[in-house]
Amino acid sequence: MSPKILIIVPAYNEQANIQKTIREIRALPMKPDVIVINDGSTDLTAQEAKDAGAKVVSLPFNLGIGGAVQTGFQFAFERGYDIAVQVDGDGQHDVAYLSTIVDPVLKDEADMVVGSRFMPQQEKGDQSSFVRRMGIGFFVHLIGLLTGCHIYDPTSGFRAYNKKMIKIFAQQYPHDFPEPEAIVLARRFNATIKELPVVMRKRQGGSSSIRYFKSLYYMIKVTFAIVLDMLKSKRTVADYGD
Amino acid sequence: MGIKLLALILSSGIFLLVIELVRRERLTFKYALGWLVASALAVFFSFFHNFLFAIAKFCGFELPSNFIFFGLLCTFVVLGLLLTVFLCQQNNRNDRMAKTIGILEFELQELKKKISSKE
Q1: Average pLDDT in the B52-59 region?
Q2: Mind telling me how many Å the CA of B6 is from chain A's nearest CA?
């Protein structure tokens, strides 16, 4: 039996990009299911996603990226999916690389695979701004120092997860700016994390949720969250029952 | 004497107000308990201020008023922290409910579609 794959697309006011993203995913040969988590959008994101053929879960109000992605994990867990892949709704993630990040999970080589923009000697796509790269570099070293896990692109939201990680993240997932913290959380559960190079594009439309003073808050919040996470005890997936 | 009377009126007033709020179901007993204990203590010390002075002296305060301000400050710091914990709990519950509602609504729409396609 072929594994059940779910693509989780968190989307907040992404009416300009969502259709293109979904059509690209649906055109893939692996034909995965697509669930768009409409995170309390005030525009036509939900309708556009439905028109493009995606299943849409609409949250009653905006929970932020962490809440939206965790809703996707809960959906995947309840429906018994084997693999979940997070793809942003803004068109930055090139789904042509989907099989690149899904394959190691399928082959049981990793519990979680991160699609990376910054691995050495890889093809360069959108590399983000200089200031953001500095921030990302800081998290690379912080996570490496605390967990011993060197991830070149800890802020990448283009990720694939196996059933174990779906179960864990359905129960517990960081709230805002979750990506770097999710790596640390995964390591607390002794997850095997693999990173593979992917090429990302610039946003196709809309605007990023992390700008101006939010960037500073992002740095402080994520740093604290990562350090605090390290003070928590190691867990296993059995802690969440059968 | 004036200040003692004022303290007595204020603390009794808060005590009675909390009871009235519980009676009107604007406050639940669980959350009113702390206020009832605090205002009852205030009423007690308004009557028997010598106890208050003795405790202040025992704790090393020169003036009983400093002891009262210090006590109030500590109380509000703890109260603020407890309220923040409570706020976080409520926020987590809201988030969990929102996620569940979102998924349930989706499942409801799916069921409705299935039923209407059978009809």
Answers
A1: 91
A2: 46
pLDDT in tens, B60-111: 998 888 998 998 899 899 989 999 999 999 999 999 999 999 999 999 999 9
Cα(A199)–Cα(A115) distance, integer angstroms: 8
Termini Cα distance of chain A: 22
Inter-CA distances, A58 with A37, A166, A177, B33, B99, Å? 6, 20, 20, 40, 9
CATH number of the domain enclosing A11: 3.90.550.10
Q: Is residue A240 situated within a structural domain?
A: no
Contact A74 B98 (CB under 8 A): no
- pLDDT digits 0-9 by tens, A89-113: 888 899 999 999 999 999 999 999 9
Separation between Cα atoms, residue A161 and residue A196, nearest integer Å? 14
Do A57 and B101 lie within an 8 Å CB cutoff?
Answer: no
Q: What is the ipTM of this complex?
A: 0.73
Give the Cα separation of B47 and B54 in Å (integer).
14
Residue A175's pLDDT is what? 83
Our count of domains for chain A comes to 1
For an interface test with B, give the residue of A6, A34, A59 to mutate (most B CBs within 10 A): A59
| Residue type at position A194 | K
Closest CA–CA distance from residue B64 to any residue of chain A (Å):
41
- Do residues A59 and A46 make contact, with C-beta atoms less than 8 angstroms apart? no
- Per-residue pLDDT of B14-51, as tens digits, reads 999 999 998 888 888 888 888 899 899 989 988 888 88
Cα of B109 to nearest chain A Cα, Å: 10
B107 Cβ under 8 Å from any chain A Cβ:
no
Q: How many residues does chain A have?
A: 242
In a domain, A241, yes or no: no
Could B105 and A58 be called an inter-chain contact, meaning their C-beta atoms sit closer than 8 Å?
A: yes
Domain ranges across chain B:
1-47, 63-119
